[in-house]
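Teaching soon. Invent one.


***
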Amino acid sequence: MTSRYQPPPIIKAAQRLLVDIEQFVRGFDRYHKYQIGSDLRRAASTVVQLASRAWRDQAHRRRWVGQLVWAVDELKQHMQTAKLIKAFRSFRHFEHLARQAEELGAQVGGWNRQPSPQAQNAGGCRAAPQRGQKLSTHTASAGANR
């Protein structure tokens, strides 16, 4: 459980991925560093920004998480492109980033599937279950035909 001022694990995962991308892009060749490396850094930075907004702006979380899902997909596409053009110094670097992006994507997917706070029956286990009023019972029905 995260406190109000401690960021959730999804933000830490996004920041860790951003830092690792920055370090790996430094090892790119000059041409790749300023082309695909720039795209990778920008996409990773966008993911961190959107995750932070989704955490802080709970009233509009649905919208921010929706954009975050697309941003993570875009980041993965840039990573695939960098792998295809052999921008990474080794496959191990790509594999390391791909695993982090996969973990981040799973967390974003889980966040995306959480019910909205305005939805009916929201509130999880703390809220009292909302049931319809019972209008008749089995014993009442049995006595109605007498």
Notes: Residues 61-84 form the longest helix (24 residues). Residues 13 and 104 are 6 Å apart (CA to CA).
